[in-house]
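Notes taken during the Thursday session

The instructor put the following on the board and asked us to keep it in front of us for the whole hour. The protein is CesT family type III secretion system chaperone. We were told not to look anything up and to reason only from what is written here. First, the residues (137 in total):
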Amino acid sequence: MMMQQQNLQRLLDDFGRRQGISLTIDNGVCAMQDEQGQEAVILELPAGSDTLLLHCQLFASALLTDQLTTWRLLMKLNFEMQAMRGCWLALDEEEQMRICYQQPLAGLTPATFSALMLAFIQQAREMRLLLPEIVAA
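Then, after some discussion, the predicted structure tokens were revealed:
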């Protein structure tokens, strides 16, 4: 395991102890689910990178195939700093709408990593509640 991934594993170990769960990085990826079995957060640390990517599936874009107005609203959300708190919306290769955030690994302490994880998980929860309202509008 490369040094950056070892650092991330130490942070995951500490976070896992605080949350009472076990988290392991595998090939640069660690996935965590919520109580309902939905993605809570996926962490990716690509080989040779020092930037951590956090992302989470919100919904399948097939639900919005022909709703251009809704797509425009979703893309405009990326500029709503108050609502997005540094995150952005993106489509993955499987056409899933995801909320994303990136953070340099350097300088993250167990406390700041824990705060980052909890804040991202909360942001994803809030977006899951907000987006159906936007889609229905």
